[in-house]
């Protein structure tokens, strides 16, 4: 439903990207985050971002929690991939329904090290 994503910035990596920026074929930017990875399922959250909000993330104007909870348009895309071989499931959900435990803590910003633009 959001199309094929091409990752263009990886902010956290643990065996695979766990926090990253990506865009689809229409040029829409998303902030991607693994919200759950256990024996049953891997669940991803994708918050649509404008280029201005992406700059805000990179410049510490917007924290990671707010990027998801106060997302433009009020919805994030949730993708669930079963580890039991079932087909993946994806749907738009209201950002207000996100559990705080699935998100970075409020006040946590991207750690870009020397990569700031």
Tell me what the structure shows:
The chain is mainly beta. It contains two helices and six strands. It has helices at 51-58, 64-69; strands at 6-13, 17-23, 29-37, 41-49, 75-82, 89-94. The chain has a six-stranded antiparallel beta sheet. The longest helix is centred in the middle third of the chain and has 8 residues, at 51-58. The termini are far apart.
List the helices and strands and how they pair.
Layout lengths: L5 E8 L3 E7 L5 E9 L3 E9 L1 H8 L5 H6 L5 E8 L6 E6 L23
Antiparallel strand pairs: 1-2, 2-3, 3-4, 4-5, 5-6
Q: Which blocks of ≥5 consecutive residues have pLDDT under 50?
A: none
Backbone shape: globular
Report the end-to-end length measured between terminal Cα atoms: 31 Å
Query: For the largest beta sheet, what order do the strands appear in spatially?
Result: 1-2-3-4-5-6
- The helix content, as a percent range, equals 10-25%
Helical/strand content category = mainly beta
Strand content: 35-45%
The radius of gyration over CA amounts to 14 Å
Biggest beta sheet summary: 6 strands, antiparallel
Distinct helical segment count: 2
Element-by-element helix/strand order: EEEEHHEE
- Give the strand tally: 6
Average of per-residue pLDDT values: 93
């Amino acid at each position: 439903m959001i199309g094929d994503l091409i990752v263009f910035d990886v902010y956290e990596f643990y065996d695979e990207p766990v926090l990253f920026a990506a865009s689809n074929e229409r040029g829409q930017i998303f902030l991607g985050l693994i919200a759950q990875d256990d024996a049953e399922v891997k669940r991803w959250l994708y918050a649509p971002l404008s280029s201005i909000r992406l700059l805000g993330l990179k410049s510490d104007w917007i924290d990671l929690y707010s990027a998801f909870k106060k997302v433009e348009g009020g919805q994030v895309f949730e993708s669930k991939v079963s580890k039991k071989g079932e087909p993946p499931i994806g749907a738009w959900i209201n950002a207000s329904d996100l559990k705080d435990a699935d998100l970075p803590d409020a006040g946590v910003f991207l750690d870009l090290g020397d990569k700031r633009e």
